[in-house]
Amino acid sequence: MQEIQYIGEHLWVGQIGHFAIIIAFVSALLATFSFSKDTFSPDGNSSWKNLGRYSFYTHGVSVFVLIGLIFYAMYHQMYEYKYVFDHVSPDLPMKYILSAFWEGQEGSFMLWMFWHIVLGVILIRSNYKMESPVMLIVAMCQVLLVTMILGWQIPWGDSAFKIGSNPTLMLRQTMEAPIFNNADYLSLIKGNGLNPLLQNYWMTIHPPTLFLGFAMTIFPFGFAFAGLIKNDHQSWLADAYKWSVFGAAILGIGILMGSFWAFEALSFGGYWNWDPVENASLVPWITLVAGLHTHLIAKHTGHGLRSTYFYYLISFVLILYSTFLTRSGVLGDSSVHSFTQMGLEWQLVILVSFFFLTGIGLWLYRYKNIPQPEKDENLYSREFWMFIGSLVLLFSGILITVSTSLPVYNTIMQYFDPTFEGRVINDPVSHYNKSQLWIGIFVAILASASIFLRYKAINWEFNRKKVVKKMLVFSAVSVLSTFLFAYFIPLYSWQFYIFTFAGFLATFTNIDFIIDIFRQKMKLAASGIAHLGFGLMLIGLITSGLHAHYVSSNPFVFRGMFEDADLEKYVQLIKGKPLMTKGYILTYESDTLIERERKYKIRFQKVDKDLNVTENFTFEPNAMYSNDMMKVAAFNPDTRHYLHKDIFCCVVALPLAMQDAVEAKKQEDSLKFETYKVQTGRQHQN
Fold first, then answer.
1. Over the range 92-124, which residues count as b (16 or more CB within 10 Å of their CB) and which as e?
2. 3-state secondary structure string, 11-57?
3. What does 605-650 look like in DSSP terms, one character per residue?
4. 264 by DSSP, 3-state: which?
């Protein structure tokens, strides 16, 4: 049978792209081998190091070529490629091409590799003493990441063993359909397009920032690995510190960007909802921050070196574990923004297990060789309380990880016992807040007291009265501030009073520290600025959490449809019919469907006791339909910002016929039509 000659396909893109993947894989393997030879040579070997560098450069060029080709194919809407077909459509605005690139798992893996390459080149050009062992870790990680996009099918009995998902595969290579019998099939198809939830400017800048943070965590891991493998427990500390600080800062910014996206694109009604994917990124940041504190202890006193190793090693392992949670599909029912299952689960398990055994296994092996001062920390030293603070942070990470991992536990248990029902956290916000509230309090108090102490308790006897006096004064000011705060923001329980007090205490003490230290050396104020930010964050959390209330209330309409606690969250609006509710008159004025977006205009009129309108404004929330227009894919809120508050408005439900095309068809089919004959020319009278 003659092979079909397809019209319009750009085969060269896939051919070059597939070749680039192979070169990237082979060069990463060669870089791994070369850096390992230099690492384990008694005195090092510059020839192996140079070969490792050139191999890594070749790997980088290959990955960049691959990324460029994928962007080229997406920009020119080459739907013959499955990755383009899955993530791009003719109506997709060009500003979201970036979001479409990393919407898929393959694109996000390439983004991760991109940052490893950029940072790896910077490290190579910096000529660090421990370059080879650090780059050995980076190269090994690149090998495993490239396998995620290899797309090899290895015969295994009656089936095939899949290694990775190749982003350069043709659409007709991945499915069988009659349309491919048509040589000009490209003229008959268009892409599925980007998930409406991701069509937001935050999703253009949030993922690259977050993945830069992910990529940064491998370097503290690499330096810690270098110190352990070389049995040199001091040289790596100075080199690793800048990478750790930058990594913690970037990862924190990336997480914050994600919370802003959730605020604007999801119906959380807030910045944080303890979503499992959010938690998975937060925990490595917590352990990395804990590692920074023990790093400072080790740098100034020699204490905490073992802990620093552990925190840096476990932070990267937790990044990999978060990757497993997000990409394996295990969180599909418990998170609003995890990836779907792609058959890469076993590869993700290998990725996590390999670096866990490499890092933590080596740490345990070298544990007794890691120097530890014989003299314990002084109770009145800064390092003692910093170490206690790092343990509190570790405890926080453990609690969050255990709860977030319940879907994994359920999956394992159901594998052995299909009747196992699984454990579910019904109210995540309440569940996590119960423990994290106290951890926030402890960390804030520690950040307040330890800032006045000195390493090794230097001059403690001389400074004791001054420190005690400051703590008493700021405690009194914080108590007064807490009660003044409670006058404006009701604090419903004694726990919230303590939480607010801790926030004010951290704020006031660190402002004092910053002012005092600026007179000596600006560089030393960094810790005070960070702790000040934490104190302000606690006050912001309690303000946004407890000051939130619903201006909507329509309980009679929803009685029986929702639990009593949720009745005040919703109103039912009828177009053109004003509704009075809690100081506002709400009017659903209009809605407009443009392409896949149905935008609503809802007027808010704030009224006083005499029903005089004091403020008048309009919200424009929307409902985004799926790319095939079959159902509503997302409800995006609108927010009105003030200096002291935000008002949040979101459409959360529509009549079924407007929300789902299948339901609309059912409703139409259920209608019974009857024919009435009307005689013309006669007037009907009752």
1. beeebbbbbbbbbbbbbbbbbbbbbbebbeebb
2. HHHHHHHHHHHHHHHHHHHHHHHHHHHHHHCCCCCHHHHHHHHHHHH
3. EEE-TT--EEEEEEE--EEEEPTTSSBEEEEE-EEEE-SS-EEEE-
4. helix
The residue written with tokens 């393997």 in the block is 29
> Domain locations in the chain?
1-199, 204-377, 452-546, 555-670
Q: CA 342, CA 622: separation in Å to the nearest integer?
A: 31
Q: Consecutive sets of 10 residues in the chain, 686 residues long: mean pLDDT of each?
A: 79 94 97 94 81 96 96 93 91 84 90 96 92 96 94 73 87 87 88 80 86 96 95 90 94 88 66 81 95 93 93 96 85 60 79 94 93 83 90 94 88 83 81 90 92 82 85 94 91 91 94 81 79 92 79 62 62 87 89 85 90 90 80 83 82 80 77 78 56
- The partner residues of 600 in beta bridges, in order of sequence, read 591
Nearest residue to 107 via CA among 208, 218, 258, 256 = 208
Rounded (to 5) percent helix, strand, coil in the chain: 60, 10, 30
Query: Long-range CB contacts (< 8 A, 24+ apart) of 559-567?
Result: none
Q: Say if CB 168 and CB 260 are below 8 A apart.
A: no
Cα(418)–Cα(576) distance, integer angstroms? 53
The pTM for the full model equals 0.88
The H-or-E segment that residue 211 falls in is: helix 202-216
Hunting for tokens 């927010």 — which residue is that? 639
Provide the Cα torsion 275, 278, 280, 283; round to 10°: -110
Burial of 497: CB neighbours in 10 Å, binned 0-12, 13-18, 19+: middle
Number of H helices, E strands in the chain: 22, 10
Alpha carbons 622 and 651: distance in angstroms, whole number: 7
Residue 657 near residue 666 (C-beta atoms within 8 A): no
Asked if 301 contacts 376 with a C-beta cutoff of 8 angstroms, the reply is no
Neighbours of 686 (CB within 10 A): 2
